[in-house]
Amino acid sequence: MASSSKSNDSTNSGLKDNNSDPNDEDKPELCPGFKDVDAFVKHGFGAVLSATKASASLPQAGDEFDFYRSFPGFQEFCESQGDKLLHFMSQIMQVHGCRSHLRDRNKLTGLEERFDLIVDSNDVILERVGILLDEADGVNRSQQPVMPAGFQPPKIVVSSWNRKGSGSGSRSEMFRLLHAKNVARPQLKFKEKVDNSNTPFIPKIFIKPNAVKPLPSYFTNKQIRKERPEDLDVPAALADLIHQQRTQEHVEDMFAHPYQYELDHLLLPESLLSKPEVQMYRPMDESNFSFIDTLEDLVALNEKLCKLSEFAVDLEHHSYRSFLGITSLMQISTREEDFIIDTLELRSELYILNEAFTDPAIVKVFHGADSDIEWLQRDFGLYVVRLFDTHQASRALNLARHSLDHLLTHFCNVGSDKRYQLADWRIRPLPDEMVQYARTDTHYLLYIYDCVRAQLLDFNHGQPGLLQSVWNKSKDISLKKYMKPIYTEESYLEVQRKQKRSFNTQQLTAFRLLFAWRDKLARQEDESTGYVLPTHMMIKISEELPKEPQGIIACCNPVPPLVRQQVNALHLLVQQAREMPLLKPEVTLFGPHDTSRVSESDHHPFSADGNFIMYACHALTCWYNILEPRILKDEDSLPVAQMKARRIIESFENPFRMYLPSSDVHVNKNAKFDPSSKIFEVTNRAKYSHQQQKELEAKKKAKEEAKQLAKKVSAKGGAKKRERVPSEVGESTPKPSKKLMTPAEKPQKTEPPPEESFKPFDYSQSDLKVFAGNKSKDNTQFDPNRQAHDFKKKTVIHIRGIFCFLVQIQTSRCVNHCVFILYRGFRHNWPKR
Ligand code: AMP
Ligand code: MN
Ligand code: ZN
């Protein structure tokens, strides 16, 4: 296998990405004293090196430094040199247009603020370097991107296509993009509602073409599940879990990649490793183009694709006016034709493309497929088997840059106008310019696929190793699983930490409350959090803690519509924060389950990987909340046993609370009555179900009485046989589809413990292996093949098992370890662009 350093091999004439040419005599001096870039760089490096050496030899912080500092001469010298350095730094920052009050010692700005300034300036300078490199490379990023409406004031919204026919452009044309402000929300016409609930994503797939391993019954029975009337008042994902518990299916199936098996066993045929014949692309204006927005056309396209040996795919995405984001367009190019699919129109039908997308005999070429793979799963239930990612190829070839722009310039001599990358792709009808741009993204990709394969082989002296590694990396990408953003009690800290702001307790509280408000509203209104309240505004509000609602408005420019609408609610949150005792910055208070030191995001049960625990927690909290209201009755009227139970439960902090999304750490009663808290929602739901249960019980009682009456009447007839039937099947089932309902009901019937006395469960007897994904065939509790005749008992044991497990996680201090056992997905890596 060749190492990537081979790219410097001069024999590889195909790879010319070096750019300096120091021999040019005619060039004027770069800057005084330096004839060219090389000379300047050499000098610069020398200076930086000696400065680094000098700084390393300074007295170390701590005793040594303090000792030296006790000499006035040293102190003076330090101060004058420090001032000088700050002055230079300020100058550099000013040149780059950054804030630069580094030397302003009077300001309350501490070391941290200065550090922030430097970090910000570094970002600005590096960004500028990137842009200049791009420009030197022939890629022009300096143009304004076409932003989604709302991103910027209308006056600035200018794009080539609303300036169409510049000069002669009529007024109506000039304002075309402004109409983008009023783009109808595509979500409104989605057949299946978007699930923004704070629950993990479950694959959408329900038919699995090209399966080697059949799709688990969990997915094939989806239609039946839609008809479960008892689940209508809980989030779909939670209902699925509860249903799964009832039906004893494996949780594992719900979260697995549906094509994991096929991808794990995918072989790489010789033909894909041999040198290809590079097939030139057709000029774009000579190729056919079809816009596909009907099911008929989509079916025809699928049939066409199924006959090919490769095609190219790309997606366009909209993320500003939706919580999870919406795939708005799919581009497909064959060697002959370009297609653009209106994925807003055909969202519910696109799954049919799985036939071609998962056929291992057909290569799907993407450029930078990381996000695409996730979007396909999230929106359409589409998967890719046999992916070739040209971005991975570009990396393996060690090209100067790995963007599609660069590949287009490098291989096809075609420029693309990346301003459209951020266009509002929901706009319909799609303007010609956007169609052109979108087509460009896939039109040349099969040719590039040929070129890079040939080069990967050449590069490696004909050996297939390098090409093979690109196929493997591509396969890894196609194994990625979409993970829904999950709100946790610590989410705000991650964002806050990134801002590198030090907040006092009041500010931090405000930030936490605003963060929770924003997340909740964004999910509810199906808007991005950035649309609801951009982070920088949230920080400003938290820092200033305005006393009046008007002050909140003043922190925002432009004022987000939902902030304006809910300014009073926001004001209450700020007031709440102001009531906190004021502590020094950086004292962050957590509940007793402070997990902040557990390396967050990697193994935290709520990191994107924590699906499983998250699920268990949801189910348990649901149970906890169903049971709890019974105990939280008026204390005076409670019998002694129930009083005891109540005490126990009150002293007993919900053990899964720490793993659950909510706006407060403790389950306190106030939170339950605070409409802004998550617990309020859950409790209400629980109340509702409790109420329902009461009604059910009342009905049951009435029915029982009626039955008793009937029994008395028919007693003479000696109908003994019939008596037993209803009492066994579950007399309180007033709903249809008894087969499904029977197990569903059992947990409710088997759990009236507070009526008697409260006995903590003996956790030591539970089997924990099941949570490690162990299928343990000999385990009596979880054998899906066993008949459910003792369902009642099993459900209780099962729920207690999870409970026990969670208590153990909480009390044993090896959260990491436990989660690690459960952890089966892989980290979500947002691709760098
Ligand atoms: P592309 O693969 O370049 O066509 O990009 C696909 C989608 O990713 C676009 O429609 C955008 O929604 C999003 N996207 C691409 N580049 C960026 C970027 N630099 N910043 C934010 N979103 C981007
Ligand atoms: Mn793309
Ligand atoms: Zn694209």
From TrEMBL:
Annotated stretches, region: Disordered: 1-29, 684-760
Protein name: Exosome complex component 10
Protein source organism: Sparus aurata
A matching Pfam family: HRDC
Biased composition (Basic residues): 709-723
Residue ranges of domain HRDC in the record: 504-584
Bias type Low complexity, positions: 1-13
Domain of life of the source: Eukaryota
GO BP, one annotated term: nuclear polyadenylation-dependent snoRNA catabolic process
Main location class: cytoplasm
GO cellular component, one term: nuclear exosome (RNase complex)
One GO MF term attached to the UniProt entry: single-stranded RNA binding
Cellular location(s): Cytoplasm; Nucleus, Nucleolus; Nucleus, Nucleoplasm
Alphabetically ordered keywords of this record: Cytoplasm, DNA damage, DNA repair, Exonuclease, Exosome, Hydrolase, Isopeptide bond, Magnesium, Metal-binding, Nuclease, Nucleus, Phosphoprotein, RNA-binding, rRNA processing, Ubl conjugation
Gene: EXOSC10
Basic and acidic residues bias: start-end ranges: 692-708
Cofactor: Mg(2+)
Subunit structure as annotated in this protein's UniProt entry: Component of the RNA exosome complex. The catalytically inactive RNA exosome core complex (Exo-9) associates with the catalytic subunit EXOSC10/RRP6 (via its N-terminus). Exo-9 may associate with DIS3 to form the nucleolar exosome complex, or DIS3L to form the cytoplasmic exosome complex. The RNA exosome complex interacts with cofactors C1D/RRP47, MPHOSPH6/MPP6 and MTREX/MTR4. Interacts with MTREX; the interaction with MTREX mediates the association of MTREX with nuclear RNA exosomes.
Family listed: Belongs to the exosome component 10/RRP6 family.
InterPro entries per the UniProt record, alphabetical: 3'-5'_exonuclease_dom, Exosome-assoc_fac_Rrp6_N, HRDC-like_sf, HRDC_dom, HRDC_dom_sf, RNaseH-like_sf, RNaseH_sf, Rrp6-like
